[in-house]
Amino acid sequence: TDPHHLGASRTMRRWIDSIFIFTLQILAISQISPNDDFTFRTLSGGKIRGRQVVTEQNVTGYQFLGIPYAKPPVANLRYRKPIPIKKWENVIDATEYKQSCLWNSSETSNDPNRTPMSEDCLFVNVLTNRNCLTEGGCAVMFYIHGGGYRYDTPSLFSPQFLVDNFLTEERSVVFVMPAYRLGSFGFLNLSPTFNTSAIKNIAFHDLLEALRWVQKEIKHFGGDASCVTIAGHSSGGNTVNLLTMSPMAKNLFSKAIAMSAGGTTPLPFDKNQEASVQLARAAHCANVSTNFDDRQEVEAVLRCLRATDAQQLILLQRGLEDEGYPFEGPCIDGPGGVLPEGIPKLRQKRYPIRLLIGSTTEEFSDTEFLVQPNGKADRRRLLSVCRKAVAEMAFKNTWLTTADCFVEYLDPSRAPHVFDDTSIFLSTALSGEDVQNAGGVSFLYEFQYRFVDGAFNFSRLSPPANRPQHTEDLVYIMGIHKGKFTAKDEIIRRMYSEIFVSFVKTGHPSIKGEPSWTPFTPTRNNYFVVDFDENNHMPGMRNGYHERALRLWNGTALRHSGGTLDPMSEKETLHFDMKDNGALTNFAAWTDLQSLNQLRGFPVGDVETLQNVLTDSPMDGSTDAVLTASSTFDGGKWNFYFWIAIIIIVILVTLLLVTCALLCYNREKRREYERII
């Protein structure tokens, strides 16, 4: 055989084999339609392209990030309801996070410059897996990020971490996280008493539109629109609580998870009005003579604000926040709104859903400054803190309830938790009770594991005795502020996240091999203790969730309150600066306090007494002195009782004198009779 011919034959055969293999590959690829390629999705508006993600734990998921759910709220659409996105022509790149909503706050350690920002920010982010995409019908978790309604963004959360927690083949929960407008862009409120072109509670309308998007589109990611759980932490949990009582959220979800959340404290109808007015003035869109009760003048201010550069507004907002004028979340927005009535009334209209709600043991501990180096509570600052807490609870009888508060938190072990008790622990128990009363089912828990340590990469870690604090548990669920995980941390992550996954999928929290959960009962205040011993087992159910806080605020103080102000006004609360260790701020002088005395419920004549107690006058160290002072402060009512008592005493003395006179008269008569005999 000719060797040249043999070599040519082999070369030809290799070419034929290569062509054959290439042809097979082409045929194989041709069998995959765009809908079968898991990184491409066709939505009602058009096509999107995501990407596959493989985690360090070898879990495969698919991320679709930055999907628009509404038109960019820019220019004339600023401060208006979100408008659903229309169809688009090109394939949207959904492989990475898009720009965040504008924020800039001194209240967080997160750097606002770590991510691009824009007003064009109304996106949803979806994580799913092959099982959900092929089989469909997966439960959906709709997570609302926290940040005090002023900061943070979905891009802070690692898709890989979330895929590990929610999208193993066994778990298969479709995870959705929306962006929504923050600060002044989400909560402008120039005209509390009437409607304008600037809708109130804008951020809530964003979230409601995102939930409607889920109902329409989640099937394309393998999700079940009838099995949606809204979830959130901190202000996100507060939002969850409020959505469970909002008439506009009906039929958009079936379950809810609220972590370290408020939501039962009364809200003012004019929330953020002062901050909004100050922003308009700082932007030169208003001045001191602007009449914010005039619709035409308000609309002129809005036209000016809409024409102002967004970056300029966010810088002005940051400056106002540092001066004590923060934008602090939702308001009561009246008929047809997200929150049309006062919170006490809305609480009676909760949906009969399934609710999982809980907290950490120590939460913020943001009044720990009350404990002095000598281990005792600072009485002057404590009284100031109690005034603020009582005002936020909207109690009518402010001074009896302030005295109740003062006595409770004189205990230095209780002093750090004044606002934790009113805003988180009380809300947690009341929310559980509300849902039970509505015909739903609620489960309470408390995360008590004190040794998160390096797993939580945050600079202000406290000693184990003062932990776990706010957000420390979230590192195991969402990965935020994630530090270095030990082997035990990985076990805790798997077990703790299983609680939430099981609830999202079944409506009942559970962990394999651990004690079972029982629904919340208000008479027992039962809750599940999340803690981990040396063998990584949990204690299980306990009774008496934050018993002292509930006994005070839902018992003693409530009985003494004389009811609540509903609806309440922002003017009826004292502005309070935590950075100044509990100083009352935003009052130029005590004359301001005098001018508001009728709203606050204490008499003009006692303002000087109040000033002495809160400022320079030393206190004698006795609780009785404060209780006596608090009785004096409630002047109008006590004056009435005083004069009633005086009248009664005069009547009794008169009766006594008349009786004595009659006795003496009868005695003299008897003596005369005896002499005659």
TrEMBL record:
List all membrane-crossing ranges.
640-665
InterPro entries this protein is in?
Answer: AB_hydrolase_fold, CarbesteraseB, Carboxylesterase_B_AS
Instruction: Write down the top EC class of this protein.
Output: hydrolase
Which Pfam families would you find in this protein's record? Answer: COesterase
Keywords of the record, alphabetical order, are:
Hydrolase, Membrane, Serine esterase, Signal, Transmembrane, Transmembrane helix
**Molecular function per GO:** carboxylic ester hydrolase activity
EC number, as in UniProt: 3.1.1.-
Q: Does the keyword Cell membrane apply?
A: no
Residue ranges constituting the Carboxylesterase type B domain according to the UniProt record: 42-553
Against PROSITE patterns, the record matches this protein to: CARBOXYLESTERASE_B_1 (PS00122)
Query: Can you tell me which family this protein belongs to?
Result: Belongs to the type-B carboxylesterase/lipase family.
The entry's protein name is Carboxylic ester hydrolase
Species whose genome carries this gene:
Parascaris univalens (Nematode worm)
